[in-house]
Fold:
Amino acid sequence: MQLGFHIDQTRCTGCFTCVVACKDWHDVPAGPASWRRVAVKEEGEWPEIFVAYSTSSCYHCAAPPCVPACPAAAITKLPENGIVVVDQEACLGRDSCGGACLSACPYEAPQFRDGADPKMEKCDLCRERWAEGRKPICVDACPTRALDAGPLEELRARYGDVREGELFTYCASCRPSVNFKPKRRRTG
Structure:
């Protein structure tokens, strides 16, 4: 089984509740590290404008490029659910290895706090919440229900198998565990 995310860009309003909930739940302080991020795309001129938001995090890829990039083997993929996890004790730190995991990731999922040689951290799909039968905090916190998480095949059966969205390009070699309902431009 592979757990993953579904992102409904037609519902996302760019409120950043998912970002705040994630930082709060995982005690990530204000600063450069953010396990979940929101990007915005704005195009056009009034009255023909287009705005889309995309929330992103680690996509727990089927073939995560960060795993072989890590010189300390501190990043692994759990066989029981496909969650990509970091052993912070084994991580050498950004300055010691040059942030090889971040360089390898097309989605900039590995995050580093300020400070001397910080250790890599990232979304772990709230694996402690899954163990309790609950979904990730970002999913539960989303006021518009733009996020869902679960077994990837179930998400695709429920929402459709759409692997690209605004501000997101599917990496065929990585096979990220994410599904979309993309926001479309109005025509006519």
Observations:
- The chain has a mean pLDDT of 94.
- The radius of gyration is 17 Å.
- Strands lie at 3-8, 37-45, 48-56, 75-77, 84-86, 147-151, 178-181.
